[in-house]
Amino acid sequence: MAADDLEVSSRVILKGSGNWDVWTSIIRKFAKSQHVWEYVDPDAVHKPVLTLPVEPTPGQAQTNATDIQQLQGDSLSKFQILEARHRSQLQIYKDRTKALATLQEYIVKTVGRYYDIIAKEDDAAKELMILKNRVKPTDWARESEVTDRYYSTLKAVSRTKVEEWISKWQIVLNEAKNLDFTFGTICGCALGSNGTAWYCPAADHQPNPAVLVTPNHGHLLPYT
To answer: What's the confidence (pLDDT) of residue 4?
Structure first.
């Protein structure tokens, strides 16, 4: 993802836990394409720090050498290799510094009403960590929100244009699968999201085409 694509994505404003995943997915895609995700990943416990590469010295190519003019033959060639490596590392450093600056601009532009909590920070990694602690939904909240949207989408099938409904259904279905929910029927058995059979303890219930089983709590959520 290029910087121009990130600019286009600025229409996605962080509104709360409900769109945290979408908002951070844009940041993650850009950061990974620019090789800076490891520096800002809010879920990483230990993040590396981007540091300016140190220029090589003549002493690294020849013992006791203090000036490049003292280098000859293999020592001079070694120093030239060190210089070339430094130029490459310096360019990478500049590119990543620019990417991080672009990323921070995007955060400030799209953080919406949460700007106040990051106003005193100038580091993208720290900003994302603060926002994660404040906005990212807990597992329970995420499950509850996806479950509610799953069933409300099912109920809206007769009130929504087919293409629009399919789009909404696919989105919430993918989110539920990412949370390891199981789907199936509430009769003799159900089909899990991985295609394997799953036995339903409520075999005496009437068939129902939309059963959801949450991974953390293991109970049936009836569709009414």
So the answer is: 64
CA distance 40 to 211: 38
The larger pLDDT score, comparing residue 2 to residue 43, is at 43
pLDDT in tens, 25-45: 999 999 999 999 999 999 999
Q: What is the pTM of this model?
A: 0.65
